[in-house]
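Q: Two folds, back to back.
A: First:
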Amino acid sequence: MATFRKRPGPGGRSAWQAQIIRRGHEPQYRTFDTKAEAEAWARQIESEIDREVFVSRAEATRTTIAEALSRYGREVSSKKRGAVQEASVIAILAVGPLGRLTLGSLQSKDLAQYRDSLLADGYSPITIKRRLAILSHLYKIAIREWGMGGLVNPVPNVSIPKLNNARDRRLQGDEYARLMSAAATYGGEIGPLITWAIETAMRRGEIAAMRWDHLDGPSGPQCRQARVLLIPETKTGTPRRIPLSTTAVAILDALPRRIDGHVWSMRPDSISQAFERVCKAAGITGLTFHDLRHEAASRLSEKGFGAMEVAAITGHKTMQMVKRYTHFRAEDFVGRLG
């Protein structure tokens, strides 16, 4: 027979703890906001014990989200290609309001409150989606690989705000000239990086990962003569080779060779930070480094490249994505209409 007791809860609120002690089973404890919730949980557990289908949730109820995230970071996230970026998200989740809850006590209403608080603080839907995706995968790993039977993943029960992260921002007027002027004052690699991004349509991470042997490696002389760069690791998981313009080749020729074999010294986050500072110095608002990929794809289309050709260069898997990243300006069509 389950017993219930009232006890202090977080924030000064009262809470109800349910306790189930059965011979041959480890004692089960769980705390709820209301007695009705505690009683419903107790009925479910006792029913499972009676039907001999009960799986202990003891480990799940003892392990906090922060502790589970720490293990997830070591065993799972560290092996991903985007480990560095994901580590920062894991750290944010661990110290946030969900971190002190246990895997077994986290409910969809907790996630809904967390989602709403992020929205109120101005976070974008894509940021919320990424955080919840990590939590969801954490639960899947805990259930499948860590032996936490009986654990239920609460993330699928939470609705995510509709994503509307499509952008159509392109360089306008004299913005490129202003960017380059500000970049020259800022110094370092950011100036050549801006032009390189526009000339190649490469992603920020792909640019940061560039190595000289991708151009001058085993197929080096032929690759260099053909003005082709190999991108061995991409976001889609499919390597690709992209053609280089004479401007792109000139940028490479002007760069010093690094001992570590990398073309650029800046990492992805450093590129974005430097670009933000350059934009601020140039008086340009609403422009991100990723928008240069939009600019590059649009310029390829304007030069007469077809959708399949643009996709081969940019690495997009679908024509829908090519359309999303290719933005024409109505003004450019006026002269062709007659």
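A: Second:
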Amino acid sequence: MLTNDVFFIVLLSAALNAGWNSAIKIGGDRITAMAITTLFGSALSLLALPWVDLPGAAAWALLGLSIAIHTAYHFALPLAYNHGDLGQVYPIARGSAPVMVMLGGALFAGEWPGPGALVGVLCLCAGVLSLALLKTPKGGGTSSSRKAVGYALLTGALIAAYTVVDALGARQSGTAIGFAVLITLGDGIATALIVLGWKGRRAFVVDRRALWLCAAAGTMQMGAYWTAVWALARAPMGQVSALRETSVLLVALVSAWLLRERVGPGRIVAAVLVFAGIAGIRLGA
């Protein structure tokens, strides 16, 4: 059930998710930035490990599957950012995931949404994807733009996959936070080892600014993910996934406020759809 505490924790997770994605986008070599970010996350996970319970044996297969999916996601996302803008890639990736998560929740966990929640999820997805269309650059039929959309959709599919797997694993493990900590420990190490084999040790030689940026991103990433898994263990996964995508609206608001981007009628309509989706999910819970 989507209680008030879960509702606000998921909104906090959305804010943290927007923060670390923005850091990856501006972090220079995005593959390297992602590897260092997730390695910082692994270090934080290692520090947290003595303070959490280990998952039960029933969840270990799902734990391994989740680490593999998260590792793939860590490469799909920066590749998408290499070909498209944050305002284009992020909404497509995040906005395409909730409907897939809702279907996965219905098929694998019997979580059939009520009419209000269903309308809310669809409204929120429509608003999020509208922001992506509004940000698509002119000449969007170029090869780079097509690749950006393709990688963004792949990222969305991976987000949906790990959300469903993580929800099932957290519920079977008996310790949602312990399950989340082991995932972030494993996927950060796996990502770093792949980048080390791919680009060599020089990939991890970065300046102090990049290092601090990755450290901040890694901290936000852990906060966003651990709180999300905690919520997935307690509420329907489709609703949790949809609420997390309000991070797209936060990115749009920051770009309008800090970057002075124009807020036209299209963005206002998209924002109204997002807020209507939030209301529908909360009232339909």
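Q: And?
A: Residues 143-173 form the longest helix (31 residues).
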